[in-house]
Batch of 3 targets.
Target 1
Amino acid sequence: MHFKRFTILALVVALSLIVAACGGGNDEEASGDEQNADLPMEPDISFTEIDRTGLEADTVVATYEGGEITGDQLASYLGFHGFVNPSVQVNEAESRQELLKFLILQETVADEVASTEWAEQKAEELWDEINSVYTEDQTEEAYEKLHTSEEEIKDHLVGYYLMESYFREQIDEDEALAFYEDIQEQITTASVRHILVATEEQQPDGSMEEIRTEEEAKQLADELYADLQEGADFAELAAEHTDDPGSKDNGGLYEDVAVGQWVPEFKQAALEQDIDEIGEPVKTDFGYHIIRVEDRTVTPFEEIEDNVYGQLANDKIYDYYSNTLPDKIEEINIQVEEADADDQSEDAQSEDE
């Protein structure tokens, strides 16, 4: 069990997958056969009923520096997580222990935030996303099984974002800009025209068969490069000679592609070649590529600033959870079941091996 499984980021991803599976929502304006064709099937979502044994208001399940968590507080928090991420095993002792630690983390920092405005706004936005996923019947089922309500869920969302706000406030502009520079590959798209001179070709049965030696491929690539330098039309030459079926019919062009998905040598050319420069043949595992970068766009910092600060805050949350929180926790009164503990021991032994 790892902390990152329980971050709100993971919960949003889970919700996004549900939305994708549903086809993005219902079209209430459609009607008749058209409506039946367009509407996705209702998502198959099942909520786990919370076992509240030992989670009474007068039961203290944890004490930490400056406070304590009672059973009913944990039950409410479990209901929240069970609502926003139905896959969380809210009745498993190990899951409860990890979620309890995360709740303690929130409680230790949330009161340090001066303003709640940002947290309340973000919580409302996420609540709207949740409402776009669940049907009314599913929401009512969740409230009943998880012993929660709209008000409680919103309160917990605000609590999370207050915690994130606390760690965001620790990030200065230099740190954010440095992170932005580090992720250039992930936020750069390029339109690239290329000719692939391959050494192998995939056969109908999936196997690879040599079609020319590496020396032959290099020689042909050099000849095509020379033709381009003398003014040959790149698109025509690509349509005639490239061994890349994915771009052959488009004159060798891949348009507005995230450069991070390409193999390292091709990616480097896409990132570093001057615009409209025809680079010398580049060798990859596929053969030799002649590349011309026709356009390259880096997402401006202003457009992803919120995401940058969010990722850095998440990193700081994880660091705090791993290195600071243990010293603040005085006692946890939820025991991991013996079977779970044995499984953990076996997992740890497997990792060591």
Note: Residues 301-323 form the longest helix (23 residues).
Target 2
Amino acid sequence: MNDYAQGSFERVQMLYHWDDIRFFLEAHRAGSLTGAARRLGVSHTTVARHIARLTDSLSVELFERGEGFRLTEAGVEILALAQRMEDAGTAIGDRLAGQGDVSGTVRIGAPDGFGNAFLSRVLPQLAVAQPSMAFELVPVPRAHKLWKRDVDIAISLERPETGRVVRRKLVDYDLRLYGAPKLLARLGPPGSPEDLRRFPFVGYIGDLLYTDELDFNRAIHPGLVETYRAATVQAQLDAVRGGAGLGVLPSYMARDRGVVPVLPERVAFQRAYWLLIPEDIRDQPRIRTAADFIVSAVRKESALFRFQPSTVE
């Protein structure tokens, strides 16, 4: 940390209102005054007033003027220091609350498949067991911005190799190619992957595909024709059920949903879910409680995530 940043930290600690820092952090995380106002439950003019007071106190511009809401170079340095203040305040609150007291809100971001087909079913159990906690389950279709605290806990398809993130592997899950019985009856069952070229396919929207891990159709055969695309796996499941085409789906979502596996021994994929937590909040009681519950719930139902060929799908 340079002399300017260290000096700023000391001045921030000694001279400035925590409310100003809090509004600055929320404005950065939300990306706009109106977004920060919505998250804080105040007017956008209130947010602007706090940021202006902090800017005047520091005698530096924190956000670039013009399109967007991007931090200046000084704003980036102040951000790191402000986050240290926030972390220290949270740690003090946790210490005062006592190790046995678990309270507060936990926001969990998850892909729509895992979130809608699993977490939405099991997370209410934790809400009942921990009435002093509040939970927010949000879809995260793109990369999780843990560093901006969009979410406290993120479920990811990719293992991060960099960043101050604690990662725990949750489970490997199987995917297979599925189709509606009426579509297979009309076109006839395929005998090989090459036969799949005569079928319409369901898949992801290309420019909304947030990870190559989900580009299944290209992996099956480059000549497949996608006639129906959707941004979520739930929408793809509905399309496959409706006979719009064949599609690769998580087996735990497709089971007992009126679709059947197609060439399950020859067209097979496996992916993994990872649980990610920012390193600086990993030991907060509310975060630890929620994370441990998710890990335990997944492990308890680990068989759910495997393809079961003896089961009628």
Note: Confidence is low (pLDDT under 50) at residues 1-15.
Target 3
Amino acid sequence: MKVEDQSLLQDAQNQVNSLQPGPDQMNRRGFIQSTLGVGFAAAVLPVAAQTMVKTPAEGLLSGEVVIEVNGHKMPVYRAQPAGKSNLPVVLVVSEIFGVHEHIADVARRFARQGYLALAPDLFGRQGDPTKYGTAAEVIKEVISKVPDAQVMADLDACVSWGRANGGSDKLAITGFCWGGRITWLYAAHNPAIKAGVAWYGRLVGDKNANNPTFPVDLAPKLSAPVLGLYGAKDAGIPLDSVEKMKAALAQGKSKSEFVVYPNSGHAFHADYRPSYVEADAKDGWQRALAWFKQHGVA
């Protein structure tokens, strides 16, 4: 494995850490994503069924739409209140494992709060991360080949689609792990972003052609306020990197903030995995909603 891929692999290993069958889990080896927002990637099976949150779709317009980006047909999971328009838009950026059942559920949670939520499949050109059995294979075969510039363009296309399909100019972004890093990057990329919430996204790392910058590099120029939600026990994102990010942010004017949960590690919001910490996940969710409201999104 290339040196520049090692930090991504550490993220992936954090996400699947402790995924061993136990009394609170169900072994669903055949339960692999077949359509966007359904099932889970092979690399994260078995899932912890008893803690999974299920948000109903009644009263929502939800499901897969397709947005064309420079000739590529990008699947996007969309959720919004049915029959309503001029809605605030939130981009929901997935982990390395794609737009699976949990990510779709998060989109529905936002829709129930009055948002038009868009969770795009950002890996489709490079491959299908749901089909690989290990995190290392997902990194090697798919994620390491995804350029940040491509992701920025895809998210720009989501914003344009959202505005034309019931959304407003009130725009936010949130993301988890890989998507947490993208949240910081996109908040710096698009001046229309009013606020972001980054869940345990990597802040520093080894640069390469596909990933030429990290959040710490962009922090001094960041204008949109981003709330970083991190776990003190996260082995892949040490607290010193959070301190480096805070110092870099202090050179700018974004008014971004961090909340570090002392009892959580990586992926504490992922209710389908043993890493889930219910109290911190619920607190983070309420903070995310309040952050968006505070900064004029909701």
Note: The CA atoms of residues 10 and 285 lie 25 Å apart.
